[in-house]
Amino acid sequence: MPVSVECEVDRARRVPRRGHGDHGVARLVERYVARHHGVALSEMMAPGRATARAKWARHTTMYLERVVLQLTCEEIAARFGHHRTSVTHACRKVEERRDEAAFDARLQALEARVGRYLEASR
């Protein structure tokens, strides 16, 4: 099931999917992705509109927190000061770009790094 659909299922059930719940790892992910995209963490985390680079960093981070850390859309939205539908939108945008080989390869590398952060935190 695509991540964006999972967010809607979570909402419809009104039962949040509990993931790893490790917000310390989420903070590491946010810092790493911001650095990877060459944007300031404060710019990526700021509510409201952002530069294209900061926007993609934000989308990527939301996607990784949803897929790898298994945080709920509501948890991710709260971290970024956005509505849960923004998380759904971000995940959908990232999923759409996974058909691009170069983008997918970069995302797989980020997923692997986040997985290592998660394993190290246990």
Alpha plus pi helix count: 7
Main structural class: mainly alpha
**How far apart are the first and last residues' alpha carbons, in Å?**
27 Å
Poorly predicted parts: 11-20
Task: Tell how many strands the DSSP assignment holds.
Answer: 0
Principal-axis shape: globular
List the helices and strands and how they pair.
Elements: H1 3-13, H2 23-37, H3 41-45, H4 52-67, H5 73-80, H6 84-97, H7 101-121
Helix pairs in contact: 1-6, 2-4, 2-7, 4-6, 5-6
Q: How would you characterize the overall build of this protein?
A:
There is one protein chain. This protein is mostly helical and 122 residues long. Helices cover 74% and strands 0% of the residues. Helix 2 runs antiparallel to helix 7 and helix 5 crosses helix 6.
Compose a concise summary of this entry.
By secondary structure, the protein is an all-alpha fold. It has helices at 3-13, 23-37, 41-45, 52-67, 73-80, 84-97, 101-121. α5 (73-80) crosses α6.
What are the defining features of this structure?
122 residues; globular; 74% helix
